[in-house]
Amino acid sequence: MANECQTGRVKSRSSTMARFGAALLVLSLAAAFSTEALGGRSARAVRTFHFRSPSGNINCYGGATGVTCLLLHNTWKKLRPRPASCDLDWAPTDMSLFLDSRTGKWGVGVGGCRGDVGPLCYPQDSCLVLRYGSSITAGSARRGIRCTSRVAGVSCVRLGAGTGPRGFRIAREGYAVLR
User: Fold this and answer.
1) Distances, alpha carbon 149 to alpha carbons 13, 58, 109, in Å
2) What is the pLDDT of residue 15?
3) Is residue 30 a part of any domain in this protein?
4) Calpha distance 149→141 (Å, rounded)
5) Is the N or C terminus of the chain more exposed, i.e. has fewer CB atoms within 10 Å?
């Protein structure tokens, strides 16, 4: 009896793994095609986006009300220190643009206290390469976020009306909050 139960679990796990593998293949193919489709100059609107710069140094993930970008290698002269309140991993080169749902104001954060890997692009992710000179938009012209990749870095700005910072620019050499 125990062997039959164990065999049933193994069959169930193997069929689950087969479905997972098939889904991963579909996502990988979609990522490959979306890399080509969104790598042009268009600012095509999507619901969410996950991309990296052509150098691979900047990785971003976002949607209509927020985006986070992580810089892997930097030459910043001064990094923000880890806040005393951060008991997780501290990423001083993490930048975010977000809409505060309580106040309705936009904000920009520099540094991230996080318990996950953040917006990093891994081979199994559906993460596109946003070519230099190209943009991607989440949301609409009334409310959304547009990120543009350039040789000098990545800029992400809010679209539509709102109060607070307009966005940020992040690069190997430094960052700027756009007012």
Assistant:
1) 42, 9, 19
2) 38
3) no
4) 19
5) N
**Domain assignment present for 19:** no
Token reading at 174: 């430094």
Number of domains present in the structure of the chain:
1
Instruction: With 0.85 as the threshold, say if the pTM is over it.
Output: no
Q: Give the whole-angstrom CA distance, residue 49 versus residue 67.
A: 9
Evaluated on CA atoms 131, 58, 165, 138, the torsion sign reads positive
Which of 53, 49, 66, 74 lies closest to 154 in space, CA to CA? 53
Contact by Cβ (8 Å): 145, 157? yes
Q: Considering the domain boundaries, does residue 121 fall inside one?
A: yes
Q: Which two tokens stand for residue 91?
A: 């990423």
Query: Helix (H, G, I), strand (E, B), or coil: what is residue 18?
Result: helix
23 in any annotated domain: no
Query: 130 with 53: CB under 8 angstroms?
Result: yes
**Residue range 83-96, pLDDT digits in tens:** 999 999 999 999 99
Pair type for strands 66-71 and 58-63? antiparallel
- What's the token pair of residue 72? 């892997």
Q: What residues pair up with 146 in beta bridges, in sequence order?
A: 137, 157
